């Protein structure tokens, strides 16, 4: 019997007690033992607060986002084994997909958000800068930094993978170390995924710890700066929240509890409408997915009173079609509850529901390749509450399984009132094509719901369903649902971050925030800012342009080109009662003229205009006015680049346009896409000739078995293949991988040192062609020169490559830059 180890203080530790047995929900067999006896929880928390916090908090948001992506990719490659374990929890393949790959998807989503929207710094500037003094010498803003503590994350048994990863996606990205405490019954699946996260080596030391089994007295050691995230029953959550160590130490506490979620069928959704069919399908899915063990499942089915019979009949017919049994069977559509304890708990709640409401469906399906005695199977149960404003049990008792209750309503007012009787829910849905009904009901029920899901014929194809929390939207709810918030895009990070107001001069705020503040001291240099690569741009890099005098012809011509013939630009007789003395230059002409003044015309690192933000016009510009531009690098934003795009980042530039009286006429922020500096050598035969002066017969490689002359003859051959002087008719890479290989030419990852050359027969290096190294140098340099001339004369040429398939001029150049750099580094020819 496998005893699950705990990952504590950076090592795998086995509990010293007998532990708790875990069972297969499908056949009742023993799966594992969990045990935390002997663990020093106080030391575990301190290890995270010290080692883990130091390592995570020192990383930038961008790097943490890259870390999430790499973990998700690592786990995705190993997903098959998680599915093989997941079925033991009673989950079908579809259930497991939501749990396993849904969890990975959350990591991918937050990685993408980090790369698009978060800075490449360990802190995050939140909101705009506020001017606190009349002259602009005293400013204020806010920064967010990782809370200096550890996060204890207590998860529920129904989603052993997603439950862990959706919490970690925000805590890890925020830079806060965590202790994961999965629910005991299904912790063996959490353990398998967690084990691979640690094995990947991607996380810095101390970032994560895991306990499988009892949490013992761990929460008694919580301190200021720590946080607890709890998913489970509201009663347990309230007990934890009131613990002295949590309440008295200002420990942040987030609770996501089960709730009596509802789904409302609109008054318009009669039998035969698309909405009626969608409603039946949605309710059935929410009752049977994960065997109803979802905190977002539909527990209360709110239906127009004149449609009760139709809904009851249609839903029973639909539930009858659901095959229950062994999740490994292709026929099975609903698996088992998580265990016998869960079965007993749900059964107890069913008996309570029976005291006030009628059990109208007790599906007695025969099991597929399973039996009720060994497994924890339960057929769907449907109740009817004919007087939902009098019989309160449907609004008070939740059976956490395939159980739901139908109840009638008369109008939108009643529908919303019934929805609110759940006393706080994670989600409520409205299925209707009547916009007025939806709007009226949604507004009234919003105060007691964390999410409102509206479904109809217009969005059904793309809908993710009533029960699917999404990383970009908040997951949580008021009242009974716990009052907590998880995910919600970048808002989900705020729980783990300390918000601090920063006050000071423009120079001080620029130094602290790494964002240029208007009024700070600019930095001028002879090199135009647009001639600098992304890494070379410094915050505060500035340019003062020459002046340009605006003419009447400029105003007329811009109006003709843009078709903007607004009277203020064209008709001086219509200006009475306006703010203008005479025809005025277009605002967008001022911006265009400013760009003409500050851009650098030659090709350089700036790739493209990426956007425009916060453009404001303060004073009119008339013919005869002279404008000058002050351009200043305001902020650098790292950017994840995919596919065949140049690795780059975004630079935000402050554009200040003044007139001849030094009055500000326009302020805007422009965004440019700026290339990063390539780590690879440019193909230049003259440069290569100088580098090869340092290469001798005695030069030994830093890796590999090539000698210096063999390396040069190899490089010469690849140059000749790329011009057609030598030809190959075969690419060794499978067709389905060619695109991926070609895309890789555009990134800045170096070629692996152990990459096997696919064109070598029997892995044997070719015989030498030339008498000595000097002759090989001469022929190699000549081949590089011929290569450069060839593509100047034949810019549209394409040739087949052994590994990368057919390459055009651009891709061929990128290949040679990587390839030559690879071999020059092999022989120490790159430094300097």
TrEMBL record:
One of its GO terms (molecular function) is oxidoreductase activity, acting on the aldehyde or oxo group of donors, NAD or NADP as acceptor. Keywords: Oxidoreductase. The keyword Oxidoreductase applies. InterPro entries: Ald_DH/histidinol_DH, Ald_DH_C, Ald_DH_N, Aldehyde_DH_dom, DUF1569, HotDog_dom_sf, MaoC-like_dom, PaaN-DH. Residues 12-499 form the Aldehyde dehydrogenase domain. Pfam families: Aldedh (PF00171), DUF1569 (PF07606), MaoC_dehydratas (PF01575). CDD domains: ALDH_MaoC-N (cd07128). It comes from the Bacteria. The keyword Secreted does not apply. Gene3D superfamilies: Aldehyde Dehydrogenase, Chain A, domain 1 (3.40.605.10), Aldehyde Dehydrogenase, Chain A, domain 2 (3.40.309.10), Hotdog Thioesterase (3.10.129.10). This is Phenylacetic acid degradation protein PaaN. It comes from Kaistella jeonii.
């Amino acid at each position: 019997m496998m005893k699950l180890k705990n990952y504590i203080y950076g090592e795998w530790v086995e509990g010293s007690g007998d532990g708790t047995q875990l069972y297969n929900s499908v056949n009742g067999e023993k799966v594992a033992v969990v045990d935390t006896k002997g663990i020093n929880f106080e030391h575990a928390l301190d290890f995270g607060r010290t080692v883990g916090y130091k390592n995570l908090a020192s990383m930038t948001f961008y790097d943490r986002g890259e870390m999430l992506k790499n973990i998700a990719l690592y786990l995705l490659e190993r997903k098959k084994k998680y599915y093989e374990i997941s079925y033991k929890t009673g989950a079908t393949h579809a259930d497991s997909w939501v749990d396993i790959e849904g969890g990975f998807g959350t990591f991918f989503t937050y990685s993408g958000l980090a790369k698009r929207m978060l800075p490449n710094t360990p802190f995050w500037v939140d909101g705009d800068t506020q001017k606190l003094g009349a002259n602009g010498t005293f400013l204020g803003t806010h920064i967010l930094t990782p809370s200096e503590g550890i996060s204890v994350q207590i998860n529920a048994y129904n989603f052993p993978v997603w439950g862990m990863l959706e919490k970690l996606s925000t805590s890890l990205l925020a830079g806060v170390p965590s202790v994961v405490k999965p629910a005991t019954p299904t912790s063996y699946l959490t353990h398998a995924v967690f084990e691979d996260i640690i094995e990947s080596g991607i996380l810095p030391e101390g970032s994560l710890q895991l306990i499988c089994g009892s949490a013992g007295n761990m929460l008694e050691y919580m301190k200021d700066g720590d946080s607890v995230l709890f998913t489970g029953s509201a009663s347990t959550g309230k007990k934890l929240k009131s613990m002295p160590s949590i309440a008295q130490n200002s420990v942040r506490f987030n609770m996501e509890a089960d709730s009596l979620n509802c789904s409302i069928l609109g008054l318009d959704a009669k039998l035969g409408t698309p909405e009626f069919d969608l409603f039946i399908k949605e309710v059935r899915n929410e009752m049977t997915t994960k065997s109803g063990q979802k905190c977002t499942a539909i527990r209360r089915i709110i239906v127009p009173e004149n449609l009760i019979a139709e809904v009851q009949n249609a839903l029973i017919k639909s539930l009858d079609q659901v095959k229950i049994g062994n999740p490994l069977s292709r026929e099975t559509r609903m698996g088992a509850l998580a265990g016998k304890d869960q079965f007993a708990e749900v059964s107890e709640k069913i008996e309570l529901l029976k005291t006030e409401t009628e059990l109208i469906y007790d599906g007695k399906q025969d099991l597929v390749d399973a039996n009720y005695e060994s497994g924890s199977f339960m057929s769907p149960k449907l109740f009817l509450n004919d007087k939902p404003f009098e019989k309160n049990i449907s609004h008070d008792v939740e059976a956490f399984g395939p159980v739901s209750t139908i109840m009638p309503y008369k109008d939108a007012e009643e529908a919303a009132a019934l929805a609110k009787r759940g006393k706080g829910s994670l989600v409520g849905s409205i299925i209707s094509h009547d916009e007025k009904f939806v709007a009226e009901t949604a507004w009234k029920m919003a105060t007691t719901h964390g999410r409102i899901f509206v479904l109809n014929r217009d969005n059904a194809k793309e809908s993710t369903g009533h029960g699917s929390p999404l990383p970009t939207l908040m997951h949580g709810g008021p009242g009974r649902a716990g009052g907590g918030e998880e995910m919600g895009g970048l808002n989900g990070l705020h729980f783990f971050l300390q918000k601090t107001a920063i006050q000071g001069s423009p120079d001080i705020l620029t130094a602290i925030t790494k964002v240029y503040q208007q009024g700070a001291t600019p930095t001028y240099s002879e090199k135009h800012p647009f001639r600098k690569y992304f890494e070379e741009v410094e915050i505060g890099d500035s340019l003062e342009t020459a002046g340009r005098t605006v003419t009447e012809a400029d105003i007329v011509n811009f109006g003709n080109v843009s078709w903007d013939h607004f009277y203020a630009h064209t008709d001086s007789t219509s200006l009475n009662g306006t703010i203008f003395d005479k025809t005025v230059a277009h605002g967008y002409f001022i911006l265009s003229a400013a760009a003409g003044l500050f851009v650098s015309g030659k090709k350089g690192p700036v790739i493209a205009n990426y956007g425009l933000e916060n453009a404001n016009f303060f004073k009119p510009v008339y013919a005869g006015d002279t404008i000058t531009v002050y351009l200043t690098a305001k902020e650098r934003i790292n950017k994840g680049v995919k596919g065949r795009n140049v690795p780059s980042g975004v630079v935000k530039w402050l554009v200040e346009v003044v007139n001849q009286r030094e009055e500000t006429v326009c302020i805007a922020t422009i965004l440019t896409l700026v290339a990063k500096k390539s780590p690879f050598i440019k193909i230049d035969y003259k440069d290569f000739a100088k580098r090869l002066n340092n290469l001798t017969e005695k030069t030994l490689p830093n890796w590999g078995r090539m000698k210096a002359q063999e390396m040069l003859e190899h490089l010469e051959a690849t140059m000749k293949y790329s011009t057609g002087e030598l030809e190959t008719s075969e690419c060794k890479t499978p067709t389905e991988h060619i695109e991926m290989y070609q895309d890789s030419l555009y990134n800045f990852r170096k070629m692996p040192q152990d990459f096997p050359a696919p064109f070598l027969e029997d892995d044997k290096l070719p015989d030498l062609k030339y008498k000595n190294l000097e002759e090989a140098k001469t022929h190699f340099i000549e081949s590089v020169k011929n290569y450069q001339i060839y593509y100047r004369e034949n810019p549209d040429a394409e040739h087949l490559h052994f590994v990368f398939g057919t390459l055009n001029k651009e891709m061929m150049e990128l290949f040679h830059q990587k390839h030559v750099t690879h071999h020059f580094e092999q022989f120490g020819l790159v430094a300097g």
